[in-house]
Amino acid sequence: MASSTEYGSHTWDLLLRVDHQHEDIKKEFPLQVTGDLHIGGLMLKLVEQIKIPQDWSDYAFWWEQKKCWLLKTHWTLDKCGVQADAKLIFTTQHKMLRLRLPNMKTVRLKVSFSSMVFRAVSDICKMLNIRRSEELSLLKQSEGTLKKKKKKDKNSKEPATEDILNLCNSPVSSGLPANPGLYSKTMTPIYDPVSGSPASSTITWFSDSSSTEQNCSILALSHPTCSPETLAEMYQPRTLADKAKLNAGWLDSSRSLMEQGVLEEDQLLLRFKYYTFFDLNPKYDAVRINQIYEQARWAILLEEIDCTEEEMLIFAALQAQYHVSKLSLSSETQDSTCESEVDEVEAALSNLEVTLEGGNKSNILEDITDIPKLADNLKLVRPKKLALKAIKTYWFVFTDTSVSYFKNKESAQGEPIEKLNLKGCEVVPDVNVAAKKFGIKLLIPVADGMNEVYLRCDNEDQYARWMAACVLASKGRTMADSSYQPEVQKILSFLQMKNWTMCSQTASEPENVDMKPECFVSPRYTKKFKSKQLTARILEAHQNVSQMSLVEAKLRFIQAWQSLPEFGLSYYIVRFKGSKKDDVLGVSYNRLIRIDMATGDPITTWRFSSMKQWNVNWEIRQVAIEFDQNVSIAFTCLSADCKIIHEYIGGYIFLSTRSKDHNETLDEELFHKLTGGQE
């Protein structure tokens, strides 16, 4: 070796390995190089040595020791830090990868192993015809969630390869540019907005093979559910710690697959990571809507999110309706789409969309001049020690983002008994329609934790108005906001689905369908009820959804999923600075929640809207966040890398900047600025 002063002025040997498929040609090539040789020149010298006539344009150098790609071909070996002991592999950038989709189907496609994961996911979504790729990411299944499967696999081999959908010949996978028409706002509809079936122009997107229509169907349409036995063998989280395992394996969006140890033919999960489903449209988003529906359905079946027995039956009824509608469609010739049906779907969409900013802001001036208020007799329930509850009726007045209550209506002109500021509080529904129970649980932040207050309403209408007002107030918005009325309608719509009455004629209607009720509910309810009881209860709940189209049934399912208190929460086990015990941190689209690990009760909530800045101390892996009113928190993450939580926060803030008025091209630089960190 030359001395450090002479380094770069003399030649030296560099052993390069070539990843090619020709068995009769050697794979290692020694080259004499100098430090001022650039990477592009090294590639040229190597290809001349290999003497294999083929397209080398997809090849690049992978530095094995440093786990990085050498993609800047104008950089010299000196600038890259490459010396004689470097192990460089000349390999393809695009490799085959297996992806498990939210509908539990596996696709095999060619993906860039050298691009950042954010870009790779964007390319994958173009192959699958899923808009808004920024909502998805790639997840490695953690060891804890695979244990149950491994026990099963001792006596059985891997699933047959026929279950894998091979998309390696799609336009994007082959290195061709994506069809810009698929992402144009002026494009013609590519899916039927009622049935969700692909139009003929859509089918040509995937390929020209005879199996193309089937491939489209696998992605855009839901298929019969798995058996109860298969469901029972899948990983089901029992505790918050178990739920934290589900979110431990998110890949870093700012690094490539290869840099994160992903190998060719590995299997990853493609999942919706961010629960802000923007600009859903059945005309263009059949695959996206179906995959969201499937992710929601499996979350319900595997109890990744908690729901009541009443809610579980609604989810079962909506699944049953979807399969009934699909069977009836397949047995008839589908007529042209009725305008009224399209209107119903679009009306459902207006209630469905979740954004950080809320609804249309065009009537802001009108809202400012007239801020509505609610005034009603409600029951106040305050939990006391020894499980006793004090229930008393008061006159409640809701103005701006605060609730005041008085002894009676006549005393409302004076000072209230108490005034509750709901900004930043947690709002949890406490409803049982069958028992005529319409409660609202408020967890209001105070200096030493959360103050619990329960409100009891008399009927559905009163509950919907007050619940909607509380939800908006928790986000710092008033009833003057244009999203108030849609929120009221969404709550009423959900209550209406719960409010079924037994009618023998209607309930027996779908019995010609071979219904297996165990496929529509989680194993807990399969154990609780006999099959006939379960069938009867699902058919009873089915009445209110029996007229829905395929797409509307899926949209209503997603809407009901979004109405659950735990919707959109991703859990992590953390240790807060100054604390002697572990807590659970829930990350949502608009807030962080500190949760007691033993009881599951929320301790404190911090909203992103009041966040001033956040940063990470990479040396001690600690996340520090500053909020308004001099509130600061710091914690270390125990169940995953702190980069994952850092990316979650930045990612949700990035998604809040989206607008329908802007061009649909993503500001990738802004995403990495908010999520990348300075590690």
UniProtKB/TrEMBL annotation:
Pfam families, per database record: FERM_M, Kindlin_2_N
Top-level division of the source organism's lineage: Eukaryota
GO terms of biological process kind: cell-matrix adhesion; integrin-mediated signaling pathway
GO molecular function, one term: integrin binding
GO cellular component: cell projection; focal adhesion
Keyword Phosphoprotein belongs to the record: no
Gene3D superfamilies in UniProt: Phosphatidylinositol 3-kinase Catalytic Subunit, Chain A, domain 1, Pleckstrin-homology domain (PH domain)/Phosphotyrosine-binding domain (PTB)
Record-linked SUPFAM superfamilies: PH domain-like, Second domain of FERM
Compartments where found: Cell junction; Cell projection
Family to which the UniProt record says this protein belongs: Belongs to the kindlin family.
Name recorded for this polypeptide: FERM1 protein
Organism from which the protein derives: Lanius ludovicianus (Loggerhead shrike)
Gene that specifies this protein: Fermt1
